[in-house]
Each structure stands twice: as C-alpha cells, then as structure tokens.
Amino acid sequence: MELQDNAIVKKNPMEKNTAINQKQAENQSAVSTIMDLLDKMFALHASKAAIRLYDKAWTYHELRELTLDVSQYLQESGLKKGDRVALMMNRSIYLYAAMIGIIRAGGVVVPLDTKTPPARLTDLLIEISPLRVFADRFSADLFRKCAELSPGRFQAVLLDDGEERDFVKLPFGSARRDDPQKVDLLPNDLAMIYFTSGSTGEPKGVMIPHGNIFKNVQWVIDTLGYNVDDVTSGLNATAFSASTADIFPPLCSGGTLAVYPEEVIFPKDILDLTYTYKVTRTLLVTSTLNALVNSGLIKPEHLQGLKTVLLGGEPANRNILATVMAMLPNAKFINGYGSTESSLMAVFSLNDYKGEDGGAVPIGFPIMGIRFTLDKTDFPENEERGELIVHSPHLSIGYWNDPDKTNKVFGRDEHGVPFYRTGDVASFIPGVGYCIHGRKDSQIKFFGYRINLQEIERVVSKVDSVTGNVVIPVRENGEIKSLKLVYEAAADCHEEIHHNLKKSLPRYMIPQHLVRLEQLPKNKSKKIDRALLSSVYGTSDK
Predict the structure, then answer these.
(1) Three-state SS for 242?
(2) CA distance 504 to 496
(3) How many Cβ atoms sit within 10 Å of the Cβ of residue 129?
(4) Collapsed DSSP state (helix, strand, coil) of residue 403
(5) How many CA atoms are closer than 13 Å to the CA of 404, on its beta-carbon side?
(6) Alpha-carbon gap, residue 211 to 335, rounded angstroms
(7) What DSSP string describes 16-46?
(8) Where are the alpha helices (DSSP H) in 400-539?
C-alpha cells in the first residue's frame, strides 16, 4: 500500500487562532460529553428560548424538564448503559427532548427515517433490538405495520400530544421527587447509531461514540463562534448524521434551534421560515442550496444577519456559490467534509477561493489534529490521486454487529492511531488542501443522502425476469439530478420492478427512469460495461 502524507505539518487556516485552541483545551478539561455542555446551558439560560417551531418557543428550563421526564421513564423501564432506543419521530420539541433524555440515561440514540418502507424498517429494528421505540402521532401507523411484520418484538411509546389508544404514552409532567440519576459517560461509550447505505447492498449501522460528538460540537462552537445570540436552522433529517451539527452546537452554546418541520420542503417555504426565524447559522446539503438559489426567490435584504453557511453532503457547485456569495457578501461560506464514520474532518473557506473553473471545490486541510494520507495502490495511472485515509482518534467505533465490515475499513496505523478508509478518491494541492474527485465504489451522494447503487441493484435483481441491471446517476452540469435504471429482460417489467423497489427502499433511492434492454453490453472482462452505459444514459437528455 503506497501512502502519501501531505498534511502532517499542515494546519487548517481556520484553526490558526491560538486563543481558540487554548479555549478548547480548557473546555475539554472541564467537560467531556455534550450532556455536560447541555447541563451547563440549562443552568445558565433557563429562561431563554432553546427550541422554536413556527411561532412557539420552549425555554431551556422547559426543554430540561422534558428531557428529565424521558430519562426517568427509561431508567424506571430498566434501561442500562448502552441499551438502544429507536426514534421514529418527526422534528419537534419531543424529538429533541427524547434524544437528550436517552443520552442522559446512558442509552444509545438510534434515529430512523420514517420515510423508510415498513419491511426495511423492521429489519433495522430487529438488528438493533431496542429497549423501546419512541414514536409520535405521525409515525404511529408506520410502527403498527412494523409490529405486524414482527409481532411482540418491539415496545413503542408515544411521546407527543397525540392520542393513540394502543400505545403507551410517556408521562410528561409527572411528579419527580428527585432528578433521575445522570449516568457517567466516557468518550468511548456508544452514543448514537446511524444507518447508511452499505457497499454490499445491506444498510450499515455506524456506531458513534460520545467523544466523537463532543469533539465536533466543541470545534464548531469555538471555531465558528457560536453564542447565545445565534439562531441555527434545524433543517436536516434526524436520521442523517449531519443533523448533529444542526442540533447540538446551538443548544450547547445557549443559542436557539429553529426547527423546520417535515412539511417544509419547497424553496419558498424554506426561505420564508428562514426569514421569519432570522437565522444566523445554517448547515445545508449542497442540493438544498442549489434549489434555493435556482428558485430565484432569495431576498438578500432579509438575510443580512446570516453569519455562516456550512455546506456538505455533496460537491459544491461553483456557479451556484458565485451567485449566492455575491448576494450575501457578509456571510461566511464553508465547504465541510466528513462522513457518518468520522463526522466533520476538514473545512475550506470558500469566500476568497479563486480556483479555476471546472475543477473540484477543495475540502481544505484536516481539522482537530486529524491527519490525511492517500493510498495510491489502485491508481497507477494517476500519480496525483489516491484513496483518502483518515487518521484520527475521533472515529466511529465501527459497524453495529458487523466485525467483518468494520475490519475492512477501520484499523490502526503504525503509530497506533485509528484510521478509516473513506472510499473517496482525493488529491492534494499545496497551499490549497485536498480535493475529492469521486468514489472508488458505486456509492454516491444524492440530495444529501449517501446511497450505494448496488443496494438498489440488489433489490431489482430479485425480480425473476430481470437478468441484469445497472443504476446510473443522471448528471446535469456535473450535478446528479436523478437516478436511471437500465435493466436486461426479455419483456417489459417496469411495474414489478417498481413494486419491489417501493416495498424495500425509501423514496429517494428509487430510480425515476427505467430503461429495458434485451441485452446489456459487456466489456472485455465479460462484465456489464458500466462505463459505456453511463456515457449513453448518464446525461439528462438521454
């Protein structure tokens, strides 16, 4: 394995402030988990708005009381440190109280996507074997379908103000003689499990320890300067690991988390709520920013208080960036790079970058003492590129209940430091940092979701009449706009394929276009010629 190390002595320009680094060290000596940070904010800002949803706000004191109710209920239900609690809930005050209450009680938060089909969701629930499933009135029917597929296995608890007769309801507001005991948490204790699309066609449960979350939250607060006056947009899906950067930096710094409910999906509605909330900090997947800019509805005069826009999830579009930065010259735009396995790893300030048109937008240098290397073993034809390897003590613990997958991408380097093989193809530009050029495998980022195309292909292959299939990302101006399925079959079987896909996969993974061929082309190795199919069907006009 040929490794190129470009960043041992390189330091991210955003971390050059010695005072900030000293402050981080002092904070870490005083606190070690986000629960410690949250308790500090509960004490300091009891009467201040912590959560806002439309025109209703909850104070830090009210949020604390709800979290204590959750924690007390779990402890009385026999929760032990490390037990999983699944969340099948829309974004609401109850969701955030549930997350914090689970952490306080020593449990492991497992956010699940409520747009997932019941069969797939049931498999995930069986995989994690949760002590309880927290639901709300929006997901009650979905849970019932899961319970029918696996009777008697799961216990659901209703957390919101809905009325579902067959659900146990968490007793918010019940009398407490004493606050529930706070469980001592260590940096390596498991905090959360996020399920992502797996390279072998099965979802992977990425295990996130408390130390990883704390380190990232503390870095965001200190480096970007979050404070009590900030209003942060809560726009990302809770089942998406980037949501931790929505939720915890504002709540751990005394700011306000402004919640965007699930029904807010169109650019006009997102922008209207952003203006109403007077958002100062926002984390957006690149496709959301693109949709907002392309809508032509942005009113710059209503966004003068916006301080930072942290982008991630997908490569940034240079034209979109130029347009929006001209509209908002006082806002700081940052390209963030990370994965569920490692959270935030690198950032790049976009405002002053004058790179050449057509090139990849840099991710910059690693942060928080992280080190990058490039494994060039599989890239003999391009000596500048290699697979990006992350060396960091702040990585995922691995994949839930799957040591084989864990051992394939996680390990320790010659210095004993944990490393993670990202699967991203990267290069290094002196003075600029690292650039990402795509994936080694068939994984893509689509509307902020990490999708492995093989997972879709595996579902399609279960249709008896399909003898081969390929899922192709359809690009326009370099951006993935849709997914196209090209399959081999003697006769049209669109309807059966659609039925299987809808039953097994969330909506965002279902190809929008289907093409049948009597025979898929093969390359010299007698394998399906994916490159040829991509060249023919991978643009929006084909």
Answers:
(1) coil
(2) 13
(3) 12
(4) helix
(5) 3
(6) 23
(7) --HHHHHHHHHHHHH--SHHHHHHHHHHH-T
(8) 403-409, 453-460, 494-504, 530-537
Instruction: Measure the CA–CA gap between 373 and 415, rounded to whole angstroms.
Output: 14
| Structural tokens at position 513 | 């276009």
Whole-number Å distance between alpha carbons of 436 and 430:
15
Question: What's the CA gap between 443 and 509, in Å, rounded?
Answer: 12
CA–CA dist 70, 261 (Å, integer): 22
Amino acid at 447: F
Helix (H/G/I), strand (E/B), else coil: 282:
strand
The one-letter amino acid at 276:
T
Distance, in Å, from the CA atom of 297 to the CA atom of 62, rounded to the nearest integer, reads 36
Digitized pLDDT (tens) for each residue of the chain, 542 residues in all: 445 554 433 556 666 543 434 444 444 444 589 999 999 999 999 999 999 999 999 999 999 999 999 999 999 999 999 999 999 999 999 999 999 999 999 999 999 999 888 999 999 999 999 999 999 999 999 999 999 999 989 999 999 888 888 899 998 887 776 778 888 999 999 999 999 875 555 789 999 999 999 999 999 999 999 999 999 999 998 998 889 999 999 999 999 999 999 999 999 999 999 999 999 999 998 878 988 998 999 999 999 999 999 998 777 777 788 899 999 999 999 999 999 998 899 999 998 777 654 467 899 999 999 999 999 987 776 778 899 999 999 899 999 999 999 999 999 999 999 999 998 889 998 988 999 887 777 678 787 777 878 778 888 988 888 888 899 999 887 788 899 999 988 899 999 999 989 988 888 899 999 999 988 887 655 567 887 898 888 886 54
Residues 6+ apart with CB under 8 A from 352: none
d(CA 437, CA 439): 7
Cα distance between residue 389 and residue 445, in whole Å = 19
Q: Three-class SS of residue 417?
A: coil
**Amino acid occupying residue 105:** A
* Residue 163, Cβ density class (10 Å: 0-12 exposed, 13-18 middle, ≥19 buried): exposed
CA angle 539, 540, 542 (to 5 degrees): 75
The Cα 245–Cα 220 span in angstroms is: 8
